[in-house]
Amino acid sequence: MDRNAVRQDVPLDPQGRPIVNTVAAVSIAPSGVGSELSEHVAQVIGVIRDSGLPNETNAMFTNIEGNLDEVLGVVRDAAMVLAGQGYRTEVCLKLDIRPGFSGQMAEKPRLVDDLLDGR
User: Fold this and answer.
1) Strand order in 62-67's β-sheet?
2) Residue 28, SS3?
3) Where does the record place the Thiamine-binding protein domain (predicted)?
4) Which residues, 6+ apart, have CB-to-CB distance to 1 below 8 Å?
5) Half-sphere exposure of 53 toward its Cβ, with a 13 Å CA cutoff?
6) 69-98 pLDDT per residue, tens
């Protein structure tokens, strides 16, 4: 794959469906439950971690990587943890959809680090 190409060939799975790698940054939290959200957010992150998709959590977001349909399914399931309890639930979602690539949660920071090391 050419990282600098504007367009990539889209690989297909054995059933002929496109494999569309996606890195998502998602934040899911309830509204109106007070000033500390950690207990509720932990429930959400538990669903994401149990999904089996590569993920990492930082102070503001949880990143998830996988095929687009899988990632969106995990975001839906994670949001439903709170919404299913009756909470008004806010979801902030950013997607980097890049057909033909995988392992981007590790690769993207490595590329930036290499550039910074070479300055």
Assistant:
1) 55-57, 62-67, 21-30, 89-97
2) strand
3) 24-112
4) 8, 100, 101
5) 29
6) 999 999 999 999 999 999 999 999 999 999
Tokens of 84: 């299913």
Write the DSSP string, 66-115. EEHHHHHHHHHHHHHHHHTTT--EEEEEEEEE-TT---HHHHHHHHHHHH
The pTM (predicted TM-score) of the whole model is 0.88
What does the DSSP 8-state code read for residue 17?
-
Query: Rg of the Cα trace of the chain?
Result: 17
For the chain, list the domains and their CATH numbers.
Answer: 21-117 (3.30.70.930)
Residue 16 one-letter amino acid: G
Strands 62-67 and 55-57: antiparallel
pLDDT bin (cut points 50, 70, 90) of residue 26 is: very high
Q: Which of 102, 94, 115 is nearest to 3 (CA)?
A: 102
